[in-house]
Amino acid sequence: MPVAAQATNEASDVMCSSGLGPVITLAFGMITLGMILLSAFRGAIAINKIGSARSDKKKEGREALKGAIITFLGAWFFPLFAVVIDKAGVSTLSCVNFANIM
After folding, report:
1. So where does this one cross the membrane (predicted)?
2. Are 49 and 57 in contact (CB under 8 A)?
């Protein structure tokens, strides 16, 4: 077995047996959920500003809406990163048994 593959297997065993894999998965999920909620909040404020009669407020609203969209798109970095780590062989998502959650 190559050294890199052996190290990856050992890292996966440590992640699952120590409980670090599920903690990382939970942290990434909470960060993602928080960023989605933040983007919704920022979007609501932006839409409120866009509805203003003043043109400077409308401009601020459009800029805030761009920020909300960027925040929403950036929220998906964390779950994608967790999947990439898992596919690379370091178990994070595969440690969690989602059948027991529901």
Report:
1. 20-43, 64-85
2. yes
